[in-house]
Design a protein that fits this description.
Mean pLDDT: 75
Radius of gyration: 12 Å
Helix content: under 10%
Distance between the termini: 27 Å
Order of helices and strands: EEEEEEEE
Shape: globular
Number of helices: 0
Low-confidence stretches: none
Number of strands: 8
Oligomer: single chain
Strand content: over 45%
Number of domains: 1
Length: about 90
């Protein structure tokens, strides 16, 4: 794994897994079971960033290779919601 975070409120783990040329964003139970791949995002290997949000029911992902932006990901369903684009000048 490249990076990971414990989301205490939902008892879930968010992790980035290096798959060579790609990075998979994963959400799983606290014991490592019920792994869900969040396939709608191509997360940057160089600066992955995710933060708990909405009391841990969701987390926010900042940045991506394909289209830089900000997304929220539901820790239970893995549903992805695009919140904002990031400008290249940032």
């Amino acid at each position: 794994f490249i990076a990971g975070a414990w989301i205490a409120a939902s008892h879930r783990i968010v992790a980035l897994e290096d798959k060579g040329k790609t990075v998979r964003l994963l959400v799983m139970d606290e014991d490592g079971r019920n792994v869900q791949e969040v396939s709608d995002l191509s997360v940057s290997k160089s600066a992955p960033s995710f933060h708990p949000w909405h009391g841990g029911r969701e987390f926010v992902v900042v940045g991506a290779e394909e289209s830089p932006g900000i997304w929220s990901v539901d820790t239970t369903s893995g549903e992805v919601t695009h919140l904002s684009d990031l400008l290249a000048e940032w």
